[in-house]
Structure formats: C-alpha cells, structure tokens
Amino acid sequence: MKIVRVQDIIGTEREVHGPGWTSRRMLLKKDGMGFSFHETIIPAGAELNLWYKHHLEAVYCVAGNGTITDKATGETHEITDGTLYALDQHDQHTLRGGTEDMRLICAFNPPVTGREVHDEDGAYLPDTSED
Ligand code: 9YT
C-alpha cells in the first residue's frame, strides 16, 4: 500500500508548472497503478488550449470554478465542485479558469511518466519506453 500526501509533493520534482496550471503528480507510471493521478490547480482567469492526443483524461473538480469548451462542437460547460469531465475522444478543448482558482483531480491513461508539459498542440508526448 502507498500513502501519498499532497503536502509532501509540493516543491518536489513531482510538482510541475506550466502556463496557467500547476500539477502535483501523486501517482505516476512508475507507481504501477496503470494510470497517473494528479491534483491540478488552474488559477482564476487562466486559459489553456489542450489536446491529449495520446492519453485519455478524467478530471473531477473539487473546488473553484471555470469552463470547458469542446472545440469540435463549440459547446461550453460550466465546471464547479462536483463536476467531472472525461476526454474519451481525445477531445480538443479550451479550459478556462473562472473567478476562483480551480482544484481538479485528474487521472491519465496511459499514465504520465514524470514531468511532462504540453507541446505546441496542447498534448503530452506518448510514452515510448518499454515496460
Ligand atoms: C486539466 C488539465 O489537463 N490541466 C493541465 C495539467 C494536467 N491536468 C496535469 O498534468 O495534471
């Protein structure tokens, strides 16, 4: 059994920052669960254009607010505490922070391996390591 506390991750190599987000990677590929599990903070007013071409991601909001726009349909959905979105179609999307910082719990399949940041398309590169 593993016990992971987010306060022990803050400021370590498992905390990764990008423009408009901070990701605390509580479980990575090397933790052997078959998915990675992150706490992500999206500051109020941030805007991220994302497209996880190589991953599926489920995101559950536990605090704050924001919106997600599905670029395929143009639809925008409110995100508040208790909202989950699942990018089951490798959906191109825009995530916007609202009036308060959003705290999101994210799971990636396949798992993120470490300190991935988005490429110019908003993707994380595929994991090409064997095992
Ligand atoms: C919600 C989202 O995709 N934000 C970008 C960061 C990502 N969730 C991560 O690496 O934790």
TrEMBL record:
Pathway(s) the chain acts in: Amine and polyamine biosynthesis; ectoine biosynthesis; L-ectoine from L-aspartate 4-semialdehyde: step 3/3
Record keyword Iron present: no
SUPFAM superfamilies with a match to the protein in the record: RmlC-like cupins
Keywords: Lyase
The enzyme's E.C. designation: 4.2.1.108
InterPro entries named among the record's database cross-references: Ectoine_synth, RmlC-like_jellyroll, RmlC_Cupin_sf
Domain of life of the native organism: Bacteria
EC top class named in words: lyase
Catalytic reactions of this protein: (2S)-4-acetamido-2-aminobutanoate = L-ectoine + H2O
Function statement: Catalyzes the circularization of gamma-N-acetyl-alpha,gamma-diaminobutyric acid (ADABA) to ectoine (1,4,5,6-tetrahydro-2-methyl-4-pyrimidine carboxylic acid), which is an excellent osmoprotectant.
Recorded family membership: Belongs to the ectoine synthase family.
Matching PANTHER family: L-ECTOINE SYNTHASE (PTHR39289:SF1), PTHR39289
Name of the protein in its database record: L-ectoine synthase
Organism field: Marinobacter daepoensis
